[in-house]
Amino acid sequence: MSAPHILILGPPGAGKGTQSATIAETYGVAHVTTGDALRANKDMDISDMDTEYDTPREYMEAGDLVPDAVVNAIVEEALSSADGYVLDGYPRNLDQAEELEDMTTLDVILSLEVGRDELIDRLTGRRVCSECGTNYHVEFNQPEESGVCDECGGELIQREDDTRESVENRLDVFAENTEPVIAHYDDHPGFEPIDGEQSPDGVWQDINTAIKRHVE
Ligand code: AP5
Ligand code: MG
Ligand code: ZN
User: Fold this and answer.
1) Which residue among 20, 34, 162 is best mutated to probe the pocket of ligand 1, counting the most ligand atoms within 8 A of its Cβ?
2) Number of structural domains, the chain?
3) Does residue 48 belong to any structural domain of this protein?
4) In terms of residue numbers, what domain contains 11?
5) CATH number, domain with residue 105
6) Which ligand lies nearest to the CA atom of residue 97 in the structure?
7) 83 vs 45, 89, 104, 182, CA distance in Å?
8) Strand, helix or coil at 40?
9) Which residue from 65, 160, 174, 187 puts its CA 20 to 30 A from 41's CA?
């Protein structure tokens, strides 16, 4: 089979970014993530798309969805230049899921399952490398030296949407918009629910086994 097309679904803080990094490295595929793409372009002018705000920043800091037209364009562009990929953070509503069907076919759909209290603990304690984007956690995944990235020595910072208020809103937005997307995929070939409450390594073992079931 050619390079795999993998979708990773799950609520904010489920470990999509953490696991996608390992998937991308192990399978030699691109990590396509709308969250990182938008964070790198927070102040791009989207006013010509008839949106409520002129840049993605306002939506993201509140934990609301950035308008579909903006994210659809990002994903279409990224997938057109990728051979295999792990797609993280998209689709987040049923309209985006429909768009994706016109862009590509999916071999594996991983659905990370984690309860709300655990998600809040993970997100409010997350730290991210300002240089290379590697994820850490003040309790669950500490760097060797506090505040410094093990991979590149960069400074670790807190994401602007990891405040308690924004986290609560992100979880509500997920329940309303993205849970129906998971229900939509649960009878799709390649759908694999994954217990996301294990250690990062335990989650990875289950993901790797699940991918191997569908990809030669
Ligand atoms: P995005 O960046 O996608 O954020 P998210 O979905 O809220 O997910 P996160 O990145 O917060 O969590 P994750 O699942 O990647 O978990 P992680 O591995 O970091 O989107 C941000 C914003 O962009 C959205 O709110 C929206 O505004 C906009 N946006 C993006 N896509 C969009 C779209 N398609 N449409 C519209 N708007 C869009 O792990 C979390 C923490 O837990 C880390 O500290 C990590 O170290 C720790 N951890 C990970 N795994 C474990 C484990 N097994 N045990 C213990 N701790 C763990
Ligand atoms: Mg992420
Ligand atoms: Zn780094």
Assistant:
1) 34
2) 1
3) no
4) 5-29+83-214
5) 3.40.50.300
6) 1
7) 29, 19, 11, 24
8) coil
9) 174
